[in-house]
Design brief:
Blueprint lengths: L1 H14 L3 E6 L3 E7 L3 E6 L15 E4 L11 E4 L4 E4 L2 H11 L6 E2 L2
Parallel strand pairs: 3-4, 4-5, 6-7
Antiparallel strand pairs: 1-2, 2-3, 5-6
């Protein structure tokens, strides 16, 4: 279901005049929103992030919520429906998810 929602989010962002790239790989999917709006990472497993460094414009969605928060960006713990941090792209994504009844409790 999340794949369908993500494609609808891409359509929504593009209708607002932004360009997007969807990068799919075995460890995580990523939506890049251009110009310079950030990325949304959809992890398949929280261990998949490895040495990836996220910027303050990035949003990370973890299925298990076992991510150690870097002092930047927005992290969504999908399984526990919790969130920590904030950025413009992530807030837009959270608002978009609320259309489907998906909401997150703020930890900060």
């Amino acid at each position: 279901m999340l794949d369908k929602i993500n494609h609808e989010f891409i359509d929504y962002v593009e209708s607002q005049g932004f360009a997007t790239d969807l990068i799919e790989n075995p460890d995580f999917d990523r939506i890049d929103v251009k110009p310079n709006c950030g990325s949304i990472y959809f992890l398949r497993n929280s261990a998949d992030i490895g040495e990836t460094e996220f910027t303050s414009a990035d949003t990370v969605i973890s299925p298990s919520g076992d991510i150690v928060r870097q002092d930047r960006g927005l992290i969504l713990h999908a399984g526990r429906r919790e969130r920590i941090g904030s950025n413009s792209l992530g807030e837009e994504y959270v608002r978009f998810l609320s259309r489907y009844g998906i909401r997150f409790d703020r930890l900060d």
